Amino acid sequence: MTSKTGHHWQFFRAGGFDQVRLESAADLAALRSLDQKLWATLTCPVVNLELDPRMLSYIDSNGDGRIRAPEILDAVDWTLAHLADPEALFREEPVTLSSFNDSAKGQRLTLSARRLLQVMGRAETDSISIKDTEDLSALFPAGEANGDGLVPATMVADAELKQVIGEIISCLGGEKDRSGEQAVSATLINEFFAQAKAVFDWHQGASVASLKPFGEHSASAIAVISKLRDKVDDYFTRVELAAYDPRAADIMNAGKAELERLSALSLADTTELAELPLANLQHGAFLPLREGVNPAWQSAVEDLREWAVKPLFGDQDGIDREQWREMVARGNDYFAWWSQRPDLAIMGQLSVERIVSLVEQNAQELLLAEVARDMEQAGAAEGLVDLDKLLRFKRGLLELLRNFVSFYDFYSPDRKAVFQAGRLYIDGKSCDLVVQVADANAHAAIAAKSESFLLYCNCVRKGQPVRGRESMTIVAAVTAGAEHELMVGRNGLFYDRDGNDWDATVIKVVENAISVRLAFWSPYRRVAGMVSDQIQKMASSRDNALVTDAASKVGPGAVVPAAAAPAPASAAAKTFDIAKFAGIFAAIGLALGALGAALAAVFTGLLSLQWWQWPLVLVGIIAAISGPSMLMAWFKLRRRSLGPILDANGWAVNTRAKISIPFGTTLTQLPHLPEGSARSLRDPYAEKRPVWPALLAVVIVLVLGWTAWERNWLGSAAAPAETPAVETAPEAVISE
Q: In b/e form, how buried is each residue of 34-59, taking b as 16+ CB within 10 angstroms?
């Protein structure tokens, strides 16, 4: 195939579709011109891939967790633009200072590489590897500017600014600096101080009298007035009602019955007392603040006296109605101002006074200046990031292309695709087509269309986490062998790509055909299973009936007749109905006769056949039984594909990607004895085979042989023609 650019492409056939070969830098340079209808896939997630996560994050330019074809093309173009010899992507060789081209981009990489080698104390060498850039925190120390526009607390010297950075992070969250520390950006700084300015304006909108109606402890006073407002109003209303009608005095106080009920309770918890009046009405219009107060409200009343009464009226033992109204009126302006309080995130972490002080200190401008100072190093820092990016593209980009543009790795017998998570050992077989999944049920709803036999397993590695987790869910495709023992609850062992072992338990099975050979025996297994189940049900039913009957006879309610006085025979037994039993036996005889006649007709028809026709009849019978199952399995196996398995994981597979029967045998391995092994066929614990099947077979063979001899099926030599007898006249009687 020749593209519009004049590039000659090479394709190979695998999985039922044409796949492009990527074997040279020229192929990569022309990749943008290749029709994307010929790509194996168009998008894939960045998770659950056996590739460098940081490389994938570089390719995922928009950070949406997915890699698309345009991002792949951009990564290829970027890599080719920085390498002096793009063919190095196809060679396993170290990256040196001479690997970068002479362009402006390449020169910046060269300078960054030299700087890195100097920092690492290897200025005399020119070879750089991924190990040198693995730890970005070592390349970008926390206390130095690194050009990412983020300012951690360790970067500033001023203690006050350090505290402000910590407060911004606690209120709005932070971003991870290249050094690995939590930091703030210009966006976070501006957002924080926008909220702070709103609080500042609200705070400045109130008069001093409104803010501090009770002096320095106005907030505490307002709080306790709000808490006791209903209870104090209730008390003075009760007093006024008692003054209106003296009969109400006893009623408005706690009644005798209520006090008797409370006396029977434990009053360590004063919750039951809270519903009683604040004080006894005997105090009249004077609300006591020291003695005679309901114990449930004693603490709140003491706070009222300390924070509200003392600043206004001095230290006194009680207040009247007018004093209470004055205290409430002083707090009304505060309440009105407080109702306009902004509902902002920073209000939950910082006090109003602290927020006001931050605005007055102009901390925003100081932090933005630190951001600008960090950005001055952007050029040099970006060079180190680009160096790390190129090193990772050099190692893994081609592998990604051979699992994205084509499925070269998947269809190569000596390689594994990036989506293959490892190998599952279960039921005497090993499965190589294993993919990590997030939700087994959701994945199975789509993956079932792959026409593959799928096992979903929960893998656990307790106390030994791998990549930060102790459990995961996988799906394995069984493409060879038998499925008889593959069921939910079956245990196996899973090895990931790093060689770590996981306990695997089957949690879901999607049944599909595995092979045509297994489909041949499927009808017989189903019939055998049905017969076995029916026999077991009949045996179980009969056993239960016998047990029930025996229990009814020997149980506590059973009546055992006396041996000395047997019942008369005429009373114990019913009259024998000979006509009834004659009818039963006649019906049985007719049924057996019909069955015998049918068998005789079949047997006679078989015996009438020539010897060479018998195999044809046998083949026809077998084909009639197993043929439909085998045909269905054959059609399903022809439709078996990889696409739905990956699509269920978020891929956009652009072709069917068939899993043929020969290829399936390479994905699921069956056990084989090692070459040169010795094996003893004698099993001391093997079940002894019964003799009667062999004897029956011998009898059948003998009967068939005798029948063939009698009917001359074997084609014996033709007998000579019978000579007709010559009639002779009766011998004449000679009479003398």
A: beeebbbbbbbbbebbbbbeebbebb
Q: What is the DSSP string of 520-546?
A: HHHHHHHHHHHHHHHHHHHHHHHHHHH
**Burial degree of 60 (CB within 10 A; 0-12, 13-18, 19+):** middle
Report the b/e string of 362-392 with b at 16+ CB within 10 A. ebbeebeebbeebbeeeeebbbbbbbbbbbb
Encode pLDDT of 226-284 as tens digits.
888 888 888 888 888 877 777 766 677 766 666 667 766 666 666 777 777 878 777 77
If you count them, how many residues does the chain have?
Answer: 736
| Amino acid, res. 27 | D
Around 710, how many Cα atoms within 13 Å sit in the side-chain half-sphere? 8
Torsion angle defined by CA atoms of residues 360, 366, 367 and 370, in that order, rounded to the nearest 10 degrees? 180
For residue 116, give the nearest of 107, 125, 103 by alpha carbon.
Answer: 125
SS3 153: helix
Range list of β-strands (E), 452-510: 453-460, 471-478, 491-496, 501-510
3-state secondary structure of 469: strand
Chain Cα centroid distance, residue 46: 16
Residue spans per domain, the chain: 11-140+378-401, 208-342, 422-512+640-669
- Beta-carbon-side half-sphere exposure of residue 135 (alpha carbons within 13 Å): 5
C-alpha–C-alpha distance, residues 2 and 20, integer Å:
12
Encoded tokens for 678: 């010795």
How is residue 457 written in tokens? 């397993």
Percent helix, strand and coil across the chain, each to the nearest 5 = 50, 10, 35
pLDDT at 6: 80
- Among 320-324, 492-496, 586-590, which range has the highest average pLDDT? 492-496
CA–CA distance from 396 to each of 139, 316, 401, 432, 467 (Å)? Answer: 22, 83, 9, 22, 19
Q: What is the DSSP letter of 275?
A: G
Tokens of 702: 């003998």
* C-alpha span between 674 and 345 (Å, rounded): 69
Q: Using CA atoms in the order 386, 389, 390, 394, what is the torsion angle rounded to 10 degrees? A: 180
Closest among 663, 711, 323, 609 to 477, alpha carbons compared:
663
User: What's 270's DSSP letter?
Assistant: G
Distance from C-alpha of 32 to C-alpha of 24, rounded to nearest angstrom: 14
Quote the pLDDT of residue 119.
77
- Which element (helix H / strand E) includes 166? helix 159-172
CB 400, CB 51: distance < 8 Å = yes
Q: Chain centroid to CA 1: how far? A: 42
**CA separation for the pair 272, 262 (Å, rounded):** 8
Cα 396 to the center of its chain, rounded Å: 27
- Among 15-24, 143-152, 193-202, 452-461, where is mean pLDDT lowest? 143-152
* Residue range 340-369: mean pLDDT, rounded: 87
What is the pTM (predicted TM-score) of this model? 0.63
Residue closest to 79 by CA, chosen among 396, 315, 348: 396
- Residues 147, 374: contact at Cβ < 8 Å? yes
Please state, in angstroms and rounded to a whole number, the distance separating the CA atoms of residues 585 and 597.
Answer: 18
Q: What is the DSSP string of 116-128?
A: HHHHTT-TT--EE
**Residue-wise over 541-554: b if at least 16 C-beta within 10 A, else e?**
eeeeeeeeeeeeee
CA angle 607, 612, 618 (to 5 degrees): 75
Instruction: Assign 318 to helix, strand or coil.
Output: strand
With contact defined as beta carbons under 8 Å apart, do 532 and 524 qualify? no
Residue 51: DSSP 8-state: S
Is the predicted pLDDT of residue 327 greater than 80, yes or no?
yes
Q: Which one, of 157, 158, 159, 155, lies nearest residue 174 by Cα? A: 155
Alpha carbon of residue 590 to chain centroid: 64
At 443, the amino acid letter reads H
